[in-house]
Design goal:
The structure holds two protein chains of two kinds.
Chain A: H1 9-23, H2 32-46, H3 51-59, H4 65-75, H5 84-101, E1 108-112, H6 119-131, E2 140-146, H7 149-157, E3 159-161, H8 170-176, E4 177-181, E5 184-187, H9 189-194, E6 195-199, E7 214-219, H10 228-240, E8 242-250, E9 264-267, E10 272-275
Parallel strand pairs in A: 1-2, 1-7, 2-6, 7-8
Antiparallel strand pairs in A: 3-5, 4-5, 8-10, 9-10
Helix pairs in contact in A: 2-4
Chain B: E1 8-12, H1 16-28, E2 32-36, H2 39-48, E3 53-57, H3 65-73, E4 84-88, H4 93-102, E5 106-109, H5 114-125
Parallel strand pairs in B: 1-2, 1-3, 3-4, 4-5
Helix pairs in contact in B: 2-3
Chain lengths: 283, 129
């Protein structure tokens, strides 16, 4: 899956003006990457080959495209502690299961893919510090990966705005972030050092092999944007990147059983997750 | 407590999560905390500022905790006498005696509960727990 070219300056301006006139939402240059990403998703969903093509569709509001784009722009932005119940499931069930299954002294590897600008992998790190008293006892490796090198760079830098932190208590924000003023925060260096960020193309067959095997993979709200072929390739990659017995957490509206028979469904008190079976299954 | 009166701890561990975990516990109990990623960095920090005690991991890249301790104990006073708590996942008798021989004041096994970290920190810094 290739990302389209970035919009030109003029195109971006036109889109922002249009959005402002129609909705009152003001998107400035600092939001450019985010707006583009959502616009590309809508371009691909509507089969628009170019910006001009998509913009024409938007202006005449074909099939309610204005609302579709607005939804994409306002609903899907990620933030810290999103789908907290899965993080709860991680510490109350998944890690225990994995540690039981592994030889003593072997570390735990957790993968967040796609990681966007880092909210999810950093949430995992903070969640473990707050909720897992054995955090100093195990070698924990957290890796965040995304297809887009620009978000990876942003994730490494670790700057966040108010919206990204909205679900964290003021105590947690004060504890793990440096307040830079102007509603900007930077995550602590020790946390930046504890997450590694890498580029990856989840939908490319065999494209994730170098990352090795993980105990738990968080892959939330991305499969819904793939076509069938990419989705199957992604499912196979995820399977290959899981240890036998390792767990896969998807977004709450996603279902792996519709995509691939490779995984078992596990129901825990806080979440439904998918597990790579211990034994290889005959196809 | 004013910053200048706080006892000063140096946390030496290559894992950012572990440093963040110990830092939080110690800061909540009124300590000033600095961090180092390995023995080399710890030695640099100790030469720049004074510390009341050190929390030290064993398995670290570049310079492990035991080598660091041996190096520290060979320095001039008062540097050589800074107390150190070695914290490790290794619990074999020889791991403990190696650390003692290198100059560890206490040897604690991970996972470390908040209570024991605070108790030993208080012991070594002369602060009532």
């Amino acid at each position: 899956m290739n990302s389209p070219d970035p919009a030109t300056e003029q195109e971006f301006q036109r889109l922002c003006e249009f959005l402002y006139r129609r909705t009152g939402l003001l998107f400035t240059e600092t939001k450019r990457y985010y707006v583009e990403r959502r616009m590309f998703e809508r371009m691909s969903a509507t089969g628009s080959g170019s910006f001009a093509n998509y913009f024409a569709r938007l202006r005449s509001n074909v099939n309610g495209e204005v609302e579709q784009l607005i939804n994409a722009l306002t609903v899907n932005e990620t933030y810290f502690y999103r789908e907290e119940h899965q993080l709860q499931c991680l510490t109350s069930d998944l890690l225990k299961e994995r540690l039981k299954a592994k030889p003593r002294g072997q570390g735990i590897r957790i993968w967040s893919v796609p990681c966007s600008t880092g909210e999810e992998p950093y949430s995992i790190a903070i969640w473990l510090l707050e909720n897992w008293p054995e955090v100093d006892h195990h070698h924990i490796e957290i890796i965040g990966s995304d297809i887009d090198t620009r978000v990876i760079e942003a994730a490494r830098e670790g700057y966040f705005g108010k919206r990204a932190l909205m679900r964290l208590s003021p105590d947690l924000v004060a504890k793990y972030f440096i307040d830079l003023g102007d509603e900007q925060w930077r995550i602590l260096d020790s946390l930046r050092e504890s997450v590694r960020f890498t580029p990856v193309n989840l939908a490319e067959p065999g494209g994730t092999g170098l990352h090795g095997k993980f105990d738990v993979i968080f892959c939330r709200n991305v499969l819904i944007y793939f076509d069938d072929a990419s989705r199957r390739a992604a499912a196979e990659n995820l399977y290959e990147n899981l240890e036998p017995g390792g767990f896969l957490c998807l977004g709450h509206s996603e279902s792996m059983s519709r995509i691939s028979p490779l995984f078992d469904v596990c129901r825990y008190s806080d979440a439904i997750v998918y597990q790579r079976p211990l034994e290889t299954r005959n196809a | 407590m004013p910053e200048a009166q706080k006892a000063r701890a140096l946390v030496v561990d290559d894992a950012g999560l572990v440093r963040a975990y110990y830092r939080d516990i110690l800061e909540r109990h009124g300590y000033h905390v600095e961090e180092a990623l390995n023995g080399v960095e710890a030695m640099e920090k100790l030469l720049q500022a004074s510390f009341d005690f050190i929390i030290l991991d064993v398995n670290m890249p570049r310079m492990d905790g035991i080598t660091f301790l041996k190096t520290l104990r060979r320095q001039a006073l008062p540097l050589a006498s800074i107390p150190a708590i070695v914290v490790s996942t290794e619990s074999e008798t020889h791991d403990i005696s190696d650390a003692r021989a290198a100059g560890a004041n206490h040897y604690l096994i991970k996972p470390l509960r908040e209570g024991s970290l605070v108790q030993y920190a208080a012991l070594l810094s002369g602060k009532a727990a």
